[in-house]
Amino acid sequence: MFLRQHAPLWTLIAACACLVFTFILWPNLRRWQKALLVLSLAPVVFSAVMARLNYFEWMFHPIDSAQFLPQAGNKLDAKEMVMAVRFDADARAYPISQMAYHHVLNDVVGGVPMAVTY
Question: Domain ranges in the chain?
Answer without folding.
Answer: 2-53, 59-117
